[in-house]
Amino acid sequence: MSPLFLSVPILFPIIGGALLPLLRNRSVAALRVCSEIIVVLTSILVWAGLFSVHGESAQIYSFAKGFTIELSLDGSSAFFAGMISIMWPLIMLYAFEYMKETSRQASFFAFFVMTYGVTLGVAFSANILTLYVFYEMLSLVTIPLVIYYKDHESSYAGRKYAAYTIGGAALAFFAVILTTVYGDADGFAFGGTMSPDEGEYTIMQIAYLFGFFGFGVKAAVFPFHNWLPTASVAPTPVTSLLHAVAVVNSGIFAVIRLTWFVFDPQYLAGTPAQIAALMTAAFTLVFAAVLAVRERHFKRRLACSTVSNLSYMLFGVLLLTPDGLVAGFAHMLFHSVIKMNLFLCAGAFMHVTGRSYIYEVSGAGRRMPATFTIYTVSALSLTGIPLLSGFVSKWRLIAAGVAGGSIWSLIGVISLIVSAFLCAIYTLSVSVRAFFPAVERDLYTGSERRDAPALMLIPMAFFAAADIALGVFSGPVIAFFEKIAAGLL
Known about the structure:
Elements: H1 7-19, H2 28-52, E1 58-64, E2 67-71, H3 75-98, H4 105-123, H5 128-146, H6 152-182, H7 201-216, H8 227-230, H9 236-262, H10 265-268, H11 272-294, H12 298-318, H13 322-353, H14 364-367, H15 369-383, H16 389-404, H17 407-435, H18 454-472, H19 475-485
Antiparallel strand pairs: 1-2
Helix pairs in contact: 1-2, 1-4, 2-3, 2-4, 3-4, 3-9, 3-18, 4-5, 4-9, 5-6, 5-9, 6-7, 7-9, 7-11, 9-12, 9-13, 11-12, 11-17, 12-13, 12-16, 12-17, 13-15, 13-16, 13-18, 13-19, 15-17, 15-18, 16-17, 16-18
């Protein structure tokens, strides 16, 4: 099947989502059914493409020589698209319960569904220009989701989100233009397409840093991290799927494409550009972990944790070794499963109790045992406890850093260890408060036990089970990433 087929799962949810507001005067049930049908059919189309698309790339539109919109499928795009195609239908179920008492649901689900198609566009991009176009579209289509509640806090978060992400895209545009002009117009290729002359050495390093920090805005690298905790004011389905998986991982994915599929990793290795990017990631992952320990709002604490863990992935990618890239991909997948579940648990707590702060969790584990048991499994995994997926990726990141052998990679390893210790503090302290509160601080003494509704618990239980399965049986997944890192997929 031609790569042109990849345009179908991209366009289907974009068009379908745009038509959902036509159902605003129909029943909520009809809106939900149509939304879920669009998302499920899109996921089926994605997997049909993953198993049947062959060929180098399909050109959709050409602006000028070298500046084309093209789609293609390789191991990296198959991983990213396959991951979100499994997660999106499940989070839709959670969203149905979470959003049931809100107004303007047609608008919410319209943008939520359209975002699916745009994210797939990022995954299936065949060159840096195509990726950039969908990267910009992703910013625009998610702004209405951030400002959904339309109060002062949401409006402020939306303005900040727009300023950061669109501003970041402006930085990245410099890299897009130079890499398109000096690179191979045929698009992404493992090992890079750049062959700069000696006289272009400095300007291309500057171009790389513009691209790293520009695309890195969505990956929340310091000093462009602040939008992510602020955007946690959005509804939990948005913060769990988009701001813990789709949007932020699009930033990671763009950096991977830039580093490994546009620039030659051997060209970047040991350069000031690599060192600057690597040390930025190392600093960010510790700095954000400290912010998470200090944060008292439940969702904002998890958002700070996301900032930290995104730089775990960047650290692996920026080591410029196959082992580092494998570890980066592994943490991209495992963290998505873990962090999304932590956000879902936090959202369930807020939905049931109407409370939002860490101190208000005291005793909630006895009232919501399933929710906080699932939360604890995910917290243990994020900390890096063996037999859970978080241990696998963190261990590989540390091993890749040690094998890197440079002072810079060893600084990164120390940062990872410090951050992992802080992670145990800011995640597991919530579980301790929930299940073992001081008697005088138990806020739910005598309260009726009422756990999260079934539509919330089903996705949470699924991702907890996936977390355990990926921790115990990580071999096939790691083998797949190793093929990508070897340039075989």
